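Protocol step 4 of 6.
Sequence for PHOP2 phosphatase (Herpetotheres cachinnans) entered exactly as in the expression construct, tag removed. Do not edit the line below.
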Amino acid sequence: MKFLLVFDFDHTIVDENSDTWIVKCAPEKKLPNGLRNSYRPGHWIEYMGRVFVYLGDNGIKEDEMKRTMTTIPFTAGMVDLLGFIGKNKELFDCIIVSDSNTVFIDWILKAAGYHKVFDEVFTNPAAFSGTGYLTVQNFHAHHCARCPKNLCKRKVLKDFLDKQLERGVSYTQIVYIGDGGNDLCPVMFLKKDDIAMPRQGYTLEKKISQLAQDLRPVECSVLVWSSATDIMSYLNLLIKE
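Step 5 output, structure tokens:
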């Protein structure tokens, strides 16, 4: 009996978008209009690349960015949930699949002491250049028309499950916890014994309900959450079965 918990990061583990939170470091805590309006759908990584160049050009250093990122709030109930998972690691494997980046997620989880709860983090690789600028790269290349060009979360999940099977690990149930439009692709990959937990009022919940209205419902069960306490109640039931 082992369960796989798959978490998105922004607006799921933390209650904000880590990529927009970093703007608090910018002069006057905002970006110039030209930069802010330069985003093109599906090209978030390139956009963030320009944001990081702007921060670097304005002398924003790594330590200041780290200080800012570690003030990002966790979602309601999430601290208790991560503590609960940490205490029950023999039952839960736990991964993050996120369109944020390795530097931000690492800073936030380590500062709060939760990095050991997660077995693996799949997100866009980031590093500071020799000149002190943060640079981010695409996580991988893929052929999925639904997803942004830098990350298909379904491909990440499928590759992870294949690797685990090679190691002799299979899961009784996959629990997918997320909020965004890019979480729909992996949710559509889940089977009938699995469960999708979309955050109430966010894009993923709306997209799943739209599919149900179009009579093309997802195969897995769906349980909506508004606080991580809802997720913990469900996991408690799972382990009592």
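Step 6, annotate. The chain has a mean pLDDT of 95.
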